[in-house]
Design a protein that fits this description.
This protein is an all-alpha fold. Helices cover 72% and strands 0% of the residues. The longest helix is centred in the last third of the chain and has 30 residues.
């Protein structure tokens, strides 16, 4: 049976891999994958389809360059455009920034990314897991619970609603093998990471 610390480190590695992919950070993605045992690497169905040049091109086409393949990676892109909905979106963004500041999480600023980018939301989950690993080492079970609650809230309030809409609207655009396999894998695994 896995200890809480082993489970946290496993989820942390997975969340880091997801963050690297969402931001197109291929150097760190490759570095992380190269450090894992081959049996673990084989658990990632999308990795067998990874070709740095091709994957980078598709990542740019999907998430950076407006065009026929573009899939906005921002939570706010999937809200209604009414005046009331825009006010709600602004309020959600302020709450999201508040949640980031509470944990001392400044990754989106360092990446020059918007706080509602899927990569930023995923990186927040990663940051809670890093803090949880430290808290477990120190035996701070109260902090472990607080971090798990923050992770679950981030997923339930911001990430889950966004993901459902994104992939329902844009699923047909993911024609390359890497992202075609990554997207469903990510959706399933990030939910498990956030809720356990």
């Amino acid at each position: 049976m896995l200890t809480a610390q082993e489970e946290t480190y496993g989820k942390l590695i997975l969340a880091q891999i997801f963050t690297h992919i969402w931001y197109g950070d291929w150097d760190h993605y490759e570095q992380t994958m190269n450090q894992l045992p081959e049996r673990l690497v084989n658990e990632f169905p999308f990795h067998a389809c990874y070709d740095r040049k091709e994957t980078k091109i598709w990542h740019d086409n999907y998430f950076s360059i407006p065009g026929i393949y573009f899939v906005p990676p921002y939570m706010s892109s999937y809200r209604e455009k009414s005046e009331t909905a825009e006010l709600d979106t602004k309020q959600d963004l302020l709450c999201l920034i508040g949640a980031y500041e509470k944990l001392g999480f400044y990754y989106p600023l360092e990446r020059e990314a918007f706080p509602d980018h899927i990569g930023s939301l995923t990186a927040f989950i990663t940051a809670t897991l890093k803090e949880e690993a430290v808290a477990l080492e120190k035996g701070d079970h109260e902090l472990v619970i607080e971090l798990a609650d923050a992770r679950k809230e981030m997923y339930d309030k911001y990430l889950a609603p966004c993901l459902g809409v994104i992939f329902k609207q844009h699923q047909h655009k993911f024609s390359d093998s890497f992202f075609n396999m990554f997207i469903p894998f990510y959706m399933e695994e990030i939910k498990g990471i956030a809720h356990k």
